Amino acid sequence: MSESDVEVVVVGGGAAGIAAARRLQNAAVDCLLVEARDRLGGRAWTVSDSGFALDLGCGWLHSADRNPWATIALEQGAAIDKSPPPWMRSGPAIGFPPAQRQEFNEALEQFFTRLEQLAQDETDVPAASALEPGSRWNGLINALSTYISGAEWDRISAKDFDRYADSNINWRVIAGLGAVVQRCGASLPATFDCRVVAIDHRGKRLRIETSKGAIGADQVIVTIPTTLIAAEQISFTPALARKVDAAAGLPLGIDDKLFMSLDGAQEFDKDIRVFGRTDRAATGAYHLRPFGRPLIEAFFGGKCAVELEGKGEGAFFDFAVAELVGVFGGAFARRIKPVRIHPWGSDPFARGSYSHALPGFADCRAVLAEPVDDRLFFAGEACSTHDFSTAHGAWHTGVTAADQVIAARDRAAAASAQPA
Ligand SMILES: Cc1cc2nc3c(=O)[nH]c(=O)nc-3n(C[C@H](O)[C@H](O)[C@H](O)COP(=O)(O)OP(=O)(O)OC[C@H]3O[C@@H](n4cnc5c(N)ncnc54)[C@H](O)[C@@H]3O)c2cc1C
Atom of ligand 1 at shortest distance to CA of 388? Predict the structure, then answer.
């Protein structure tokens, strides 16, 4: 690679990097996506080798009525499923009788009301402060936090959680959201299997060191996950301690999906959810017959997912079998087989699933998103104040960072056109 190749380097080809590069390309700015993996999409990843399009990362178009990926999917001609998500339907009575379910829903509603009130206080507190001491539902309420944020409520900032904006409309792309994201970036200039290891911003031009050599650029947009920024996987010279600290306040929680085949699936309604247990946080959420397919999409989060990742991929299936046998009886074990799992916490280019703010660190999102010297820009889901943890949040931060780059270039051009 030559030192004078590009005007702007975009580090990371996930949803944010793709959005940024597209915006730059439309503004005729010469840019290059530099991606460590052998594919685009990052945490948006559809695999189809089982015969079904499975989203191992993001699958739901949350806030779908204002989600740019929904528009892009339709532009691509992708079919969208608008049926209500499993968490908004009443699941089967087995393992969770209606009276208990109602009690749980009431406890959950009261928890969220208390949480919203706590978030208005001046001092940020762990969201766990809103749990009712001794409530029998605290385990399952904590399990929900592991699915929503990838960590239990004691790790979640009440203020940050409260800032999340949700229109409560959730759709899916039948052929996979990851495939939509990947296709969206397909025509962008990109280099793969190329890890950025250092960015030197002392000179007039930036020097971006990669596993395939150095690239010179005027500006850079960094979109890698917070876990990697906090671990200084890219070293900045001069150092950017404020960014590293902000990223450390916004770790990625862990959520992993295990897909299993299910014999005799038609016994169940499509798109329903079953919890493995209703009395503890370390339990899976099992989505039966997603899109009506003969599958179970199991979701594990927080400490439970961390522990299972530590034991190896087979541990997810063993755990799921034990829980599902507990709900449906011993014969159920013979009806399910593992299809696919991806442990995101062990993925070297993610080290987690999606960001949450630690208690007291809600304002780190704005700090992470701040440009440095009109030359270093940051994007990625963790930079979003209201749509963090999502693919649409990532998209918006990418567009914002690209707009900041374009504005900075315009300022620099205007300044150099001024008579001395
Ligand atoms: C299991 C799971 C379920 C999810 N469900 C949903 C959902 O239903 N709906 C939703 O909206 N969101 C969901 N998400 C979250 C969503 O996938 C992410 O928020 C979004 O994809 C993040 O995009 P990003 O561009 O910010 O980061 P990433 O996608 O992580 O992109 C960053 C890129 O940087 C690359 N990279 C890392 N280090 C380097 C380096 N040193 N040099 C070069 N490149 C590097 C990575 O390989 C990656 O491609 C889910 C995520 C997971 C894991």
Answer: 19
